């Protein structure tokens, strides 16, 4: 039996694995009464959990800390005095497995939510329960078919039970903690006290401690952890409105008695702005330069710089490709040539900052070959080209309304504007020419009537789509400008002023009508410049709030009293992993012919076709682009996604073999480089820094802080 050493330790509290933690943190948990002799513990190299009382020296006040053994796959810590920049890359050790499903003999008391242990560590859950059973069957090679069947059933039940435990654990993390009052504990006792013979992989404390307090970020603490841990995540103090957006939002808070969150720290804002504007993480150099910059106005300068980056067009073309259904395969069936042309036009519109009224008009009135004129694919990228289907697509895209739920008379009136859209085939396979066909027979029920109920007479030789486009983009139109500013707000805030953002209807009013009207007026005043609206939003205090809620008001989320935490999009996660590790990903589409293969250096946010994908993008909820609804994209974290990040060879090989990690560890402060590259912030004294470089990178990549927008 190994005594307490300075390797990574894990403990099981309330059937939830907590860790990794150092030996000092483990000892501090014992002294604080959080760790009992019967509590299951695990060292990184062990193959099974053991009771804490069986670890020599853990409960003995005289036993020295740091005397123990190393384990296969986990190297001994470097001797004291060795700088972190000279760390030797270890072989990644096995991921700890969860103990048996039966609870310990005596359940330990619940850990207070203010404890750093409960917030610092990612949830480390192994998927080896069922796999171990199946491997045992394979090794023994029993010929008895009954035994083989029993082992298989046991393995299946083990995997199902593991998934249920993970779902229960995530639900427990999201429950309001006010229902489980617990005695508060100070943060400091959990932190390992400095020792003269400490051999953990640590970095000497920087002289400017205030920088760590300002820029640091520990995770996503909840409302019960307001005792100091949140200070590295936000900037306490009164909020100051910085424009009309803040005045309107602050007035709602005061009216409803909602207490808003504090202002977010510079580190949080840096990462948030990069992801929300260009879908890309900052590099180590970019993050370090911004965080060390003490000049006023640096946030505004960052927003202006990001709006001019080339990645802006890539990221926002991806957003609009979801809405406009850019997909070659079933059920859209654009075909690769048309999908490429469609995406090129959208990308060009974003790169040149095309005014939104022009953007909409070109789509609505487009004619020509769908292979050569990209915007003509607006009428091809629907599952049916009858007038009603075209009207539903136009209403969803430019009015934010779901016209398939309208009364038949209202839908027929709007369908009248698309009743003379025709499609002519060519000699090139799958190519079609979108035309205005004045001689096309029209159903008498499709008499053009605007959605506001105004009937209109259109000459037989005039394209009704032009009449509809003129009405739609008018500054007096009650839908057009309000719909797009609400969609932009949703894309950067995570929740629309009208929510859902593509479900405008009379019984789904905006949470702040004055705010929605103001943004719509600003868009018209700025000649439909979408970047202008994004700049207004990102420079507001409302956008720059911390995600840590300070109010339990039922309307706090609807009135944006804190930033909405949500998982990163699938494309952003894989691009971030490739950027950090210096690796690439393979994207392809094998149907329909001709097969489509994308160069491996291509980023996921710039993929031109929804049919071109990978197993990672499918697992993490990339939208199928079948309907154009925002709800097609699912960013809910699942057990399968968590297990892929924790246990898959795909992620482990990127960390182990990628040149990016090796480069980060080979120059300067290795630990600081990893934190800047993965979390876009400096590490703090409370942050874990044990194990080797690959182990630390794996740990940070599996944290909520990395996987979620905050």
3D structure, described in words:
By secondary structure, the chain is an alpha+beta fold. Helix content is 39%, strand content 6%. The protein has a four-stranded antiparallel sheet. A hairpin with a 6-residue loop joins strand 3 and strand 4. The chain starts with 8 loop residues before the first strand and ends with a strand. The relative contact order is 0.12. Residues 61-145 and 171-228 have low confidence and may be disordered.
Q: Total number of helical segments?
A: 26
Strand order in space, largest sheet: 2-1-3-4
Spatial shape: globular
The helix-and-strand class reads alpha+beta
Which SSEs are present, and which pair or pack?
Layout: E1 9-13, E2 16-21, H1 23-31, E3 40-43, E4 50-51, H2 116-120, H3 128-140, H4 145-174, H5 209-215, E5 234-235, H6 244-256, E6 263-264, H7 266-278, H8 284-292, H9 298-307, H10 310-323, H11 336-351, H12 356-364, E7 368-369, H13 387-399, H14 408-415, E8 421-425, E9 432-436, H15 464-472, H16 480-493, H17 513-525, H18 530-538, E10 566-567, H19 570-581, E11 587-589, E12 596-598, H20 615-619, H21 639-647, H22 649-657, H23 659-666, H24 670-679, H25 693-701, H26 704-707, E13 708-709
Antiparallel strand pairs: 1-2, 1-3, 3-4, 5-6, 7-9, 8-9, 10-13, 11-12
Helix pairs in contact: 3-4, 6-17, 7-9, 8-24, 10-11, 13-14, 16-17, 16-18, 21-22, 23-24, 24-25
């Amino acid at each position: 039996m190994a005594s307490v050493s300075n390797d990574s330790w894990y403990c099981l509290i309330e059937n939830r694995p907590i860790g990794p933690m150092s030996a000092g943190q483990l000892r501090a948990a014992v002294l604080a009464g959080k760790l009992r002799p019967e509590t299951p513990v695990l060292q990184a190299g062990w193959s099974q959990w053991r009771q804490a009382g069986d670890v020599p020296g853990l409960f003995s006040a005289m036993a020295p800390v740091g005397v123990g053994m190393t384990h296969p796959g986990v190297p001994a810590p470097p001797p004291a005095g060795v700088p972190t920049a000279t760390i030797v890359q270890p072989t990644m050790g096995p991921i700890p497995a969860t103990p048996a499903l039966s609870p310990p003999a005596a359940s330990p008391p619940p850990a207070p939510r203010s404890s750093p242990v409960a917030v610092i560590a990612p949830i480390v859950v192994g998927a080896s329960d069922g796999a171990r059973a199946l491997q045992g069957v394979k090794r023994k090679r029993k010929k008895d078919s009954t035994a083989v069947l029993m082992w298989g059933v046991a393995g299946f039940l083990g995997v199902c039970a593991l998934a249920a435990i993970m779902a229960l654990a995530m639900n427990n993390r999201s429950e309001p903690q006010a229902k489980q009052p617990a005695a508060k504990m100070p943060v400091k006792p959990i932190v390992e006290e400095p020792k003269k013979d400490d051999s953990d992989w640590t970095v000497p404390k920087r002289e400017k401690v205030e920088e760590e307090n300002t820029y640091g970020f520990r995770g996503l603490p909840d409302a019960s952890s307001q005792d100091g841990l949140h200070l590295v995540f936000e900037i306490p103090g009164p909020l100051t409105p910085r424009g009309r957006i803040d005045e309107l939002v602050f007035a709602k808070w005061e009216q409803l008695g909602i207490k808003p969150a504090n202002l977010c720290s510079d580190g949080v804002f840096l990462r948030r702005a990069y992801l929300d504007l260009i879908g890309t993480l900052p590099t180590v150099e970019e993050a370090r330069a911004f965080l060390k910059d003490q000049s006023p106005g640096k946030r505004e300068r960052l927003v202006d710089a990001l709006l001019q980056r080339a990645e802006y067009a890539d990221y926002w073309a991806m957003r609009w490709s979801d809405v406009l259904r850019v997909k070659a395969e079933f059920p859209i069936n654009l075909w690769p040539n048309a999908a490429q042309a469609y995406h090129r036009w959208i990308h060009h519109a974003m790169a040149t900052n095309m005014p939104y009224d022009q953007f909409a008009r070109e789509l609505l009135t487009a004619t020509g070959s769908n292979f050569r004129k990209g915007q003509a694919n607006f009428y091809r990228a629907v599952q049916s080209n009858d007038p009603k289907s075209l009207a539903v697509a136009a209403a969803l895209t430019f009015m934010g309304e779901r016209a398939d739920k309208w009364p038949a008379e209202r839908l027929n009136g709007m369908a009248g504007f698309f009743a003379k859209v025709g499609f002519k085939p060519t000699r090139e396979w799958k190519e079609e020419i979108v035309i205005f066909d004045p001689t096309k027979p029209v159903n008498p029920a499709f008499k053009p009537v605007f959605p506001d109920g105004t009937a209109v007479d259109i000459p037989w030789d005039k394209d009704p789509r032009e009449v509809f486009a003129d009405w739609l983009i008018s500054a007096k139109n009650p839908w057009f400008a309000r719909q797009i500013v609400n969609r932009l707000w949703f894309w950067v805030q995570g929740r629309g002023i009208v929510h859902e953002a593509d479900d405008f209807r009379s019984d789904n009013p905006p949470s702040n009508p004055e705010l929605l009207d103001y943004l719509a007026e600003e868009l018209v005043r700025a000649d439909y410049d979408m970047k202008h609206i994004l700049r207004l939003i990102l420079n507001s205090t409302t956008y720059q709030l911390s995600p840590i809620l300070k109010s339990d008001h039922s309307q706090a989320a609807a009135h944006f009293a804190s930033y909405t935490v949500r998982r990163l999009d699938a494309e952003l996660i894989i691009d971030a992993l490739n950027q950090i590790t210096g690796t690439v990903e393979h994207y392809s589409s094998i149907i329909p012919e001709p097969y489509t293969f994308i160069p491996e250096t291509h980023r996921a946010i710039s993929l031109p076709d929804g049919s071109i994908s990978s197993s990672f993008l499918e697992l993490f909820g990339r939208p199928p682009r079948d309907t154009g609804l925002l709800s097609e994209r699912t960013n809910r974290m699942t057990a399968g996604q968590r297990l892929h990040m924790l246990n898959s060879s795909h992620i482990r090989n990127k960390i182990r073999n990628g040149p990016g990690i090796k480069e980060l560890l080979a120059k300067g402060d290795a630990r600081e480089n990893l934190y800047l590259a993965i979390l876009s912030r400096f590490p703090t004294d409370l942050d874990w820094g044990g194990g080797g470089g690959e182990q630390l990178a794996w740990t940070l990549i599996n944290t909520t802080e990395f996987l979620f927008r905050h």
